[in-house]
């Protein structure tokens, strides 16, 4: 059966509000709750803390600290958009979750808070609405799906908790202002944790006095929880240096987004280290819109911390959370050959354990050797080629160092970069056609002449600003001149470029790698040329098939085409003066023809 147009489906989903994680917050509608008693605040837990069985990942987990279910009692939060006499003005919530602490003496330990995604907490009614509130025995404990992570992080020296965010995500109790519920829920949990860590009232069921370092927070979020942590850190201000003075806890020191959605939080360049793991076979956030958080960092000339986007092959959406079923729109079942088979749940969660542990080491360790080793395993070492796997799983990476550690020639942000680069030199295309594609999704009807951008024909996650570069004979070149005074590359270690192969262009050989050379010329006329690797991951032909489409000319490509990083060490360019470079050239001399999506030509230093 011919596939339904993916982009058209997305537009309809956005218009109708059908997609659970990818649709914007609907216009508020006063939905009547089911006849369940409203919970009133209590001073003590409703139930005593109990141990939660931790899933066994045989590859890494044994003898972990106990994961404990806590319940701080029932409370209410305010939805200010509803009048005080509305039943929706005061919303009942249950302040519960799971927690684990290191089972050794010591501390205080950094605190890791995990936010689950938008999966119905209460049973759905005939209108497919999860009417809120519902009895505890029928509420789906989405937070428990990260018990494996909570226990493992405690074994690595962190206080870890996964909080119940069902009240934030429900559509069954009116619609509050974006982030309003979230901020109140988080404050209630973290204020209670702060009190317990200072030796005060402790209803968490584990010893916390002096053990939780509330001045060092790390946030993790899955699906809509991913965008939630960006909003908390940047819009609410938890990542600000003065966060402790304002909130009594914080600041946040890092953000890890798992299959993040984009629904209410405008993607913002984070002020702390950030990574987004994008499952290639996501069957919920089906176009990997979470890439937008990386693109926001990329476009910020004042980006102060490193950022990364991890493209995890054969990963899907729900398997980060151990209690969820299959993705709502499938993964390997949607006909995408690159998704067969999917990673198993244990494989995907073990990947997350490994990546998270290294991320935390990179943020919190005082040992430069351990930090360097962790970043290398994460694919962040700018002095090594970009990886095609991480932790034994096929994966690719886009990575940024802080803005003041890189010299950028091309992003691109506008079509002016086709003639003048960002350091003020000329851009010359010799036997190469170039076209600028501005960021975002659009059709040729919306932007006449944009057909080469292929926005309607294939999915480039994040729909980034880019160039389309094409050549039809070997030896074509794209040359970037560096004006006097701007060509000192002696402090940089690496030249980096982000690209992807256009699978719909007849200029690319099917199922083959593209290749080209990078040539540096100094002011004395000396030249050095390095070729890309024969099997450079970013230059592989994307896996997928072309389906004819009567609505969009050119058909639909079923796979994904992420733009990822190529890195070449400047130390390999011998016989030239790196302190006085006059030109950087991309020379397309390795194949007879080709077409690439391209951006982010820059020099980096660690």
Topology, pairings included?
Blueprint: H1 6-16, E1 50-52, E2 67-78, E3 90-100, E4 109-115, H2 147-155, E5 159-163, H3 166-169, H4 180-197, E6 212-222, H5 224-235, H6 243-247, E7 252-258, E8 274-279, H7 291-298, E9 307-312, H8 345-364, H9 368-377, E10 389-390, E11 393-400, E12 406-410, E13 427-430, E14 432-437, E15 466-471, E16 476-481, E17 494-501, E18 517-522, E19 527-531, E20 546-547, E21 556-557, E22 564-569, E23 581-588, E24 594-604
Parallel strand pairs: 4-5, 4-6, 6-7, 7-8, 8-9
Antiparallel strand pairs: 1-2, 2-3, 3-5, 9-11, 10-11, 12-24, 13-16, 14-15, 15-24, 16-23, 17-22, 17-24, 18-19, 18-23, 20-21
Helix pairs in contact: 2-8, 8-9
Your description of this structure?
This protein has 606 residues and is of the alpha+beta class. It folds into two domains: 6-400, Alpha/Beta hydrolase fold, catalytic domain (Rossmann fold, 3-Layer(aba) Sandwich); 406-604, Jelly Rolls, CATH 2.60.120.260. Helix content is 16%, strand content 25%. It has nine helices and 24 strands. It has helices at 6-16, 147-155, 166-169, 180-197, 224-235, 243-247, 291-298, 345-364, 368-377, and strands at residues 50-52, 67-78, 90-100, 109-115, 159-163, 212-222, 252-258, 274-279, 307-312, 389-390, 393-400, 406-410, 427-430, 432-437, 466-471, 476-481, 494-501, 517-522, 527-531, 546-547, 556-557, 564-569, 581-588, 594-604. It has an eleven-stranded mixed beta sheet, with helices on both faces. Helix 8 (345-364) packs antiparallel against helix 9 (368-377). The radius of gyration is 25 Å and the shape is globular. 52% of the residues are buried.
